[in-house]
Amino acid sequence: MTEKKQTHEIGDRQTGSGSDFGPRPLKGQDHDGGGGNAMVEALPEFDWEKELATKIRGKFAMAAVGDLTMMRPFGPFADESLQAVLSIIRNADVGFANLESNISDPPNYTGPLRGFMGVKEVATDIKSWGINVVSKCANHGFDSGPEGMLATLRLLEDAGVQYAGSGRNLTEAQAARFFEIGHGRIGIAATYAVEEGTDATRAADAWGNYTASRAGQNTLRLTRTYNITQEQVDQLRTIQDSLYVLDEEITTLRKPPQPVSGPAASAINLNGTIYQAGGVAGTIDYIVNPEDLRQQFRQIKGGKQYADFMIASIHAHQAKWVAEAFPEETSTPQFLIDYAHAAVDQGADVFMGHGPHALRGIEIYRGRPIFYGLGQFVRQSDWRTPTRADFDAFQTTPETTPLTPAELGVLRTAGPGFRHRAMYQSIIAVSRYDDGQLQEIHIYPVDLGFDRPLSQVGNPTLANEKLARDVLEHMQRVSAPFGTEILIEGNVGVIRPSSR
After folding, report:
1. Could you tell me if 288 and 221 are in contact, meaning their C-beta atoms sit under 8 angstroms apart?
2. 8 Å CB contact between 317 and 356
3. One pLDDT digit (tens) per residue for the chain, 500 residues
């Protein structure tokens, strides 16, 4: 794989000039968790660099899958193809997934029921497959409010599945978590990328005697900016100026529009939306909140110092191109590339990306795998308890509707994107190590059954030869920009970084 330079300038444009507005990236600053390098230098003499190495010894395998939108268990099913998929995970030492939905014990759960809420058996079912760690930090994590989220965490704990990214307060949600296996201690830190104004699920810590703590998620807050041409920036400035009309009816004047900090001619904030010239027109840049970034890297680095193998995870729906339609967001935004590289620099042994329900590329950076988008592994999104929004969407009520819950569920997900074949094609990625060195990654194509009966749609089975070829060729295309070569051997993709 091509060796990439270490990158800490999260949120910079690809031109390298950086953005001149919003939260600043941490340029030239080590992500040491606060206090600066002076405090680090004051530590007793110790080889801290070795603590960031992959410390797992012997032969070790990790299986990774994407989103689980799961309402009911299916592990007991005798379907040979389904069991073949689950055996791939069971045969690994660690199984990772992003648990998109929530779970509860209906007779004992008194909180709200909204969105994707599965039964309690989901927790024990995924554990039976070999999934022993999940990211629990995503856009559906708060569907049923803090009650639903906390019920989910309790059931995961009861099932012996470790999680990261949610908690009773922000400190818990941000914290690295750990569990032990025969090979050693595994750590995970997880976050969810949100844009300004969409972070209502963010957890909070108590602040003195003024505010109480709040259960929620560990969000990574972003500022979105649109790249356009200089001519278009000038046109928007003319429009902005035309809106500032002085009339005798006005008794108190607002401040006139102020230029975005930096070169006044290159960027404009038009009614809360920022546009800039200098990048590739039609693309989107994102700048990460520096405090969120500092805390996240502190957890990754600190987690790795205590763990033999560290997982960094992010749920990120953000697209690179304005014109790229959901769920076909297969290109990777620059902020995600920068963030993944910096996470590895801070000690992450593997980087797990998920969110857009589409398969993105794979990169090997400094000998460690980065999965930019693992797709969706279970999609039972049609199977859910109808909510008021479901009935309102079709101007009906539970008492008067002729539709069954299943029909309502299908209709609610029948819009553009949600019933797209690409969302029903996925992978299992198994990374194999020997004494801490990545040897191979095996990519197993998975079929979620777009054309199956509703009772079977969304459950993972091995892809047939044609679909496997399509999925693997797609993975070759989206991974090539990262210098990653994927060989196709039968129905399996293989990456051999040690051979390059």
Report:
1. yes
2. yes
3. 444 434 333 444 333 333 333 333 433 334 444 455 666 666 677 788 889 999 999 999 999 999 999 999 999 999 999 999 999 999 999 999 999 999 999 889 988 888 889 999 999 999 999 999 999 999 998 888 899 999 999 999 999 999 999 999 999 999 999 999 999 999 999 999 999 777 789 999 998 777 789 999 999 999 999 999 999 999 999 998 888 888 889 888 777 766 665 555 789 988 889 999 989 999 999 999 999 999 999 999 999 999 999 999 999 999 999 998 776 788 999 999 999 999 999 999 999 999 988 899 999 999 999 999 999 999 988 776 677 777 787 788 878 888 887 887 777 766 655 678 888 999 999 999 999 999 999 999 999 999 898 889 899 999 999 999 999 999 999 999 999 999 999 999 999 996 54
Check whether residue 61 and residue 124 sit in a common domain: yes
Q: Could you give the CA distance from residue 300 to residue 174 in angstroms, rounded to a whole number?
A: 10
Amino acid identity of 340? A
**Total tally of structural domains belonging to the chain:** 2
CATH number for the domain spanning 458: value is 3.60.21.10
Do residues 259 and 112 share a domain? no
State the maximum Cα–Cα separation within the chain, in Å, rounded to a whole number: 80
Residue 279: other Cβ atoms inside 10 A = 19
- The answer to whether residue 84 is domain-embedded is yes
Q: Which amino acid is at 431?
A: S
HEC string of 77-124 equals CCCHHHHHHHHHHHCCCEEEEEECCEEECHHHCCCCCCCCEEECHHHH
Same domain, 348 and 260: no
Tell me which residue range forms the domain holding 442. 53-220+290-381+418-499
Query: Is the domain of 173 the same as that of 206?
Result: yes
